[in-house]
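From the shared-data thread, chain only:
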Amino acid sequence: MTFVIGLLLTVQALTCLFLILIVLMQPSKADGGLGAAFGGGTTDTLFGARTGNVLTKGTIWGATILFVTSVLLAILIAHQKPTSLVLDKVVTTQKSAEKTAATPASEKTAAPAKSAAPAEKAAEKPATTPVPAKK
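Structure, as tokens:
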């Protein structure tokens, strides 16, 4: 699918360049402007006396190809599976941060130590019975 998208993008870029050049070659109504600057008379000898018809047909074909490739690219890119989205990474990072914040490892290890600590402290304390004093 990536190859087809790349091919269509190349065709679309070449069509854009073709359209730019063909529009610039067309003579304006007053026979001035960029059409004359790029050799408006040369197109008459190259394409014949009916240059306007050839350039007009080329513009129509170029515009049609540009439109079709644009629609096809929009459809193909919409159906393409996204490889990675920035928003997906942010949501995943937030979810993992919430999980670690809800149950941190320090609480898990501290909880058993608290329950064992009073029993150990009771065993370590010396007897509180007073020792009789010697006379």
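Residues 23 and 59 are 7 Å apart (CA to CA).
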